[in-house]
Amino acid sequence: MADKDRIILGSGKVYITEFTGEIPADATVEVAGNLLGYISGGATLEYKPSYTKAKDDLGIVSKTILTEEEATFKTGILTFNGETLAKLCNTGRVSVADGIRTVKIGGVDNYDGKKYLIHFVHSDEADGDIRVSIVGVNEAGFSLAFQKDKETVIDAEFACQSMDNEGTLIIFKEETTAVA
Questions:
Q1: DSSP E strand boundaries for the chain
Q2: What pTM was estimated for this model as a whole?
Q3: Do 94 and 179 form a contact (C-beta atoms < 8 A)?
Q4: Which of 49, 121, 153, 154 is buried most deeply by CB count within 10 Å?
């Protein structure tokens, strides 16, 4: 099968760790302690460029330039705890005492300014794994719906931020059968 004929089926795992200015090796990120939680409903990566177009009145000459880029990574988080909530909210504070984990959320003065490396891994034994890495924060907030006949899933939406001095928003890596 040719590399371009790959069919991607299934979901994956999402890992998260505080971004310190460098993207660590995959093996460093892909450890149990960095697992954000098992996900439900898959994951979606969106990239949206904006352009400005200038054209003369007769439509003879024109010029188009890229003016802005926006990227987001969305996923539903099925398994979570208070530590997860703190990573989804820049004002979350976690404390543990007497076997109770308490998360306080809110208060603009509690804004921690942290950025996170969000690293998605789609495992595929047949065609090779795909990895997507972004740096950002969950800018969509969250809601917790406790329903009698349905699991609670947190819908997170991470807004991508530049991760280097080139303006990189997304790193997409795939194992390939192509020969260099």
A1: 13-18, 35-37, 39-55, 62-77, 93-97, 100-104, 116-122, 130-138, 154-161, 171-174
A2: 0.89
A3: no
A4: 154
Q: What gap in Å lies between CA 171 and CA 22, rounded to an integer? A: 13
C-alpha separations of 140 from 4, 94, 158, 159, 178 in Å: 34, 20, 7, 8, 38
Inside any domain, residue 84: yes
Q: How far apart are CA 119 and CA 52, in angstroms?
A: 32
Domains in the chain, number: 1
Sign of the CA dihedral with 132 first, then 138, 140, and 146 last: positive
Q: What single letter denotes the amino acid at residue 100?
A: I
Tens-place pLDDT, residues 140-172: 888 888 999 999 999 999 999 999 999 999 999
Q: How many Å apart are CA 22 and CA 164, to the nearest integer?
A: 8
- State how far the Cα of 114 lies from the Cα of 125, in Å rounded to an integer: 35
> What is the domain range of residue 120?
10-174
